[in-house]
Design a protein that fits this description.
The protein folds into two domains: 156 residues, Alpha-Beta Complex (DNA Methylase, Chain A, domain 2), CATH 3.90.120; 219 residues, Vaccinia Virus protein VP39 (Rossmann fold), CATH 3.40.50.150. Helix 8 links the parallel strand 7 and strand 8. It is an alpha/beta fold and 388 residues long. 30% of the residues lie in helices and 16% in strands. Helix 4 packs across helix 5. The protein is built from twelve helices and 13 strands.
């Protein structure tokens, strides 16, 4: 059984929209009588717009950015339904055995907020080269902040080699469902449930028994995203990067990775880039940044991310070079991975009944219990389902 691979039966106008949607098609490609009322622009100022987004994925082309709202946005390339959480996780490079724990909304949130694993691996490989150049090898302790479902950590894990092995020794997030996911998949990551504003870096040092060599994290990006209306530091979440840097000043790692949305550099209300650079420089770190596109590194998704790299010594860090491109030969590598191809190997998903809210499947009771239960019992159920 593949966890998180669940869909529902669609009817009415929702099904009609999906049926009429061509490959790569959007809401605007539908007949006018099927377009959502929020999509149609009205009045002398032509206001309104595509508040309800709809897109049929293509087999051979990467998707747009995966968000927490995939449940009513991305349509399967060939089937008349929205993609499942598991299929969305494939667009984020998560392995099929990575279990997302929580209700449907929680799993969507975990998947949509994650760093694509292949992008994370490319960054981690460059971190490994930087460390090797300064004579650091062996087991590399990593402290992970805002870890979410673990995409960034998993990329570092996959970038390990015989000479240099990244090991997450501390992972923290304020989201309890993320904690269940991490504890289910990687209990050795030493997950700590907490609000970064309520504990200090000294607690982290006590937890791991020393200073980490690498610190990674992606402070909440919604305040800086276009989708989040770029509220920036007017949103309390938009200032958590300052707490992140406060922790770094105590942990004193050799190198720091900070990931955020590309929209951060476009924020008009405050000069965010200068403030971030100044904050790192104030604690003795040299910093540089670059925008990276996940599809350039094999992710079947056109996700753009701003990556900051800060180092204690001269910053000779070299950002990874693309391995994939839209056309063969542009970078001398492979062509972009297709969204549909990334989950083509999956079996047919389980189906929810619309009413009552149960699964049409012999193990209905156990699966429903996963959503309802909290704590150790939930993990025990997952183990039972994995083993059949």
């Amino acid at each position: 059984m593949i966890c998180n691979h669940i869909t529902r039966e669609y009817t009415g106008i929702v099904l009609e929209r999906i049926k009429h949607l061509p490959s790569g098609g959007k809401m605007g490609d539908l007949p006018s009588h099927l377009q959502h009322e929020s999509f149609v622009r009205v009045g002398a100022k032509n206001t309104g717009g595509p508040n309800m987004r709809l897109l049929r994925l293509e087999m051979d082309k990467p998707s747009l950015t995966v968000t927490a709202y995939i449940f009513n946005k991305f349509v399967h390339p060939s089937e008349h339904r929205y993609i499942t959480p598991r299929e969305a996780a494939c667009l984020q490079d998560f392995p099929d055995d990575w279990t997302f724990v929580g209700g449907l909304g929680e799993t969507h949130q975990q998947i949509g907020n994650a760093v694509p694993v292949k992008l994370a691996k490319a960054i981690a490989s460059s971190v490994a080269s930087f460390l090797a150049n300064i004579g650091i090898y062996g087991e590399i302790p990593v402290a992970s902040y805002f870890c979410g479902a673990g995409g960034l950590d998993l990329g570092f894990e996959k970038a390990s080699s015989e000479n240099l092995k990244f090991k997450t020794v501390f992972a923290t997030d304020i989201d309890k469902s993320c904690g269940y996911t991490i504890q289910t998949n990687r209990p050795n990551w030493n997950f700590f449930l907490g609000d970064i504003t309520c504990f200090s870096g000294d607690i982290v040092l006590d937890q791991i028994g020393g200073h980490p060599i690498v610190v990674i994290g992606g402070p909440p990006c919604q305040p800086f995203s276009v989708a989040g209306k770029q509220k920036a530091t007017q949103d309390p979440l938009g200032t958590l990067y300052r707490n992140y840097i406060d922790h770094i000043s105590i942990l004193k790692p050799e190198i720091v990775i900070m990931e955020n949305v590309y929209g951060l550099k476009q924020v008009k209300r405050s000069d965010m880039l200068k403030e971030i650079y100044r904050s790192f420089e104030d604690i003795g770190y040299e910093v540089k940044h670059q925008e990276l596109i996940a599809a350039d590194f094999g992710t079947p998704q056109l996700r753009r991310r701003l990556i900051f790299v800060a180092t204690k010594r001269k910053n000779d860090f070299i950002f990874p070079l693309p391995t994939h491109s839209q056309e063969i030969g542009i970078f001398g590598g492979e062509v972009y991975e297709g969204a549909g191809k990334s989950f083509y190997h999956l079996p047919k998903p389980l189906i929810y009944q619309k009413m009552p809210n149960k699964l049409i499947h012999p193990i209905t009771t156990s699966l429903r219990s996963i959503t309802d239960l909290m704590g150790a019992n939930r993990f025990a159920l997952i183990d039972q389902l994995r083993t059949g």
